[in-house]
Design a protein that fits this description.
Layout lengths: L1 H17 L4 H24 L6 E4 L5 H11 L39 H14 L6 E6 L6 H12 L5 E7 L12 H7 L3 E6 L3 H8 L8 E6 L25 H4 L4
Parallel strand pairs: 1-2, 2-3, 3-5, 4-5
Length: about 250
């Protein structure tokens, strides 16, 4: 998608300018966030439906959220150049008190999904329509709070909760988690596995009709997607490119 290619460039440039940023993590979730905001939420708005509440649990992927929010008008596009600066509201992790459209301040892994479940339970009690969508990383699935929340969500029949797992195999070098699909299914969730960079599969999974269960979307992704030097390269996990490296990284002549 041309829009995603442009946003990918904005992520790399913002990181290089700031000298900060988890670029590969942001790139692995960019397609998902773009479809959620530009297609799913936009369609809900046009139909005058309750808009999804979105919680980015893997807060270090914040650059992807910032560029998508800049497309929706929630933040000004010019702010992207201030990313990571001392007085900027666009920090390395999103802050709900500073940035419109950010549902939860996240960064400590394992916290966003419980928050999302709490919002989903509150909406259920209030008989409010709409869903709560949260996105976690596969490495984040090493946290006990993820599975405690998965158990509670099943017990409470939170069929308005969707957990997207950014399965970019980031955790493989530290701890092999096995079948994440099988684990969520064992906890009583509906589970669908998709290509996390295929816009049609993403949209279809996020448009599924509710059942009586919470939904887990296991999105198979590539860490650093779209920037060949970064793809599945652990050396780039938290590294930021120099300004003079940007053209080569993006394939510009």
């Amino acid at each position: 998608m041309a829009e995603v290619d442009r946003l990918r460039r904005e992520i790399v440039i913002a990181s290089a300018t700031a000298g900060e940023g988890h670029i590969p993590s942001a790139l692995s979730i960019l397609d998902i966030l773009w479809i959620e905001y530009s297609v799913i939420m936009a369609s809900q708005r046009m139909r005058h439906e309750e808009i999804d509440r979105f919680v980015l649990s893997k807060g270090h992927g914040a650059l992807a959220l910032y560029v998508v929010l800049s497309e929706t008008g929630a933040i000004d596009k010019s702010e992207l150049g201030s990313f990571g600066q001392f007085e900027s509201r666009l920090g390395g992790h999103p802050d709900r008190l500073k940035i419109p459209g950010v549902e939860a301040s996240t960064g400590s892994l394992g916290h966003g999904m419980p928050i999302a479940a709490g919002i989903a339970l509150a909406k259920q009690i209030q008989k409010s329509e709409g869903r709560v969508v949260t996105l976690i990383g596969d490495g984040e699935a090493n946290e006990g709070t993820i599975w405690e929340t998965a158990l509670i969500a099943t017990h409470q029949q939170l069929n308005n909760l969707v957990c997207i797992v950014d399965y970019n195999h980031s955790t493989d070098r530290a701890l092999m988690v096995g079948s994440i699909t099988g684990k969520f299914a064992a906890f009583g969730w509906d589970v669908v596995e998709i290509d996390g960079h295929d816009p049609f599969e993403i949209e279809e999974s996020l448009s599924r009709e509710k059942t009586t269960k919470p939904l887990a979307v296991i999105a198979n992704t590539i860490k650093g997607k779209g920037v060949k030097a970064m793809e599945n390269n652990p050396a780039w996990h938290h590294a930021a490119p120099r300004i003079d490296e940007v053209k080569n990284l993006l394939g510009d002549n």
